[in-house]
Amino acid sequence: MTKTFNQDFKLGILGGGQLGRMLIQSGIDFNFNFAVLDPDEHAPCKGLAEFHQGKLTDFDTVLKFGEQCDIITIEIENVNTQALKELVKKGKKVFPQPDVIELIQDKRIQKSFYKDNNIPTANFVLTENKEDVARLAKLPVVNKLGKEGYDGRGVQVLRVKEDLQKAFDQPGLLEDLINFEKEISVIVARSEKGEIETFPAVEMVFHPEQNLVEYLFAPAQISEAIAQQAETIAKTVIEKLGMIGLLAVEMFVTKSGEVLVNEVAPRPHNSGHQTIEANVTSQYEQHLRAITGLPLGKTDLLLPSAMVNLLGEPGFSGPARYQGFEDVLQVKGVHVHLYGKAQTKPFRKMGHVTIVDQDIESLKQKANFVKRTLKVIA
Question: What is the pTM of this model?
Fold first, then answer.
């Protein structure tokens, strides 16, 4: 007998930023009913769903919000997991599961998880304070905060003795500085039934100062063997976590061909924006399929693609203006996504641009043109 899909549920999202916005945009196609909690009264999701203003880290706020929903998910990890555990006890579905979010919230626990499960990652040592860093650092080394680092914050490279002065004076870790060839990401999804699908690996290029993804190319220019290795690692991570939902697994490819996990994000991710135009199923639809019990979609690449992040230009703060907007729209294969943020400031994520093209060289040229031409100013 053919099953009937019941859409009579409310899907709550903790976080009302651009990832939540694109999740809602995807869910509209399935007639999903969304509610959003975010501390910012001008959050990008406001106006697209039932909106609640409040702190994501406050127990009572998250509990009260979640009690009005049937399924709860996240678009940011910095949320109150104790409230989410309480909601599970009350019969609510919370995906990714609260214990998975908790593990990923702390990079110290996350790294120890890789080590305990034989998942390849850079060598590391845990530190409690600045004194530990000074005592244990084998320069050059990467210094990471255990908690609350995101978008490049909470990560720094200590290269010379003088850099030890700026070491984090909170629980964190020191990690070998990897001499990598490329940084790649594999997005993987797992459903309640244990069904798993991966997206083809993408290659990321980071901003030299801000540690933010500046642009990426899909598929990654790597060998088939390395692509298979990365896919297997991503599947292993999500299976070992027992996680339901979407997981972005960021990895280093070393000069000797090793693939090492850097870190993961249990939600839609910057390295999957291009899937909206470039893949059979987008990362946003895939996440919704995974957490609502629907079959996972196929992830085949329709066309090679590039994604350029639109960051607020240095030196500009105030009402956002988009210089070069019409110029980039004239380029074949270009699709601009703006995030509904009225105010810009230096390096704030204001949008992204996806470019699709059969020819890889043409794709790179177009990506560089977009990067040079489209500027967010005030």
Answer: 0.96
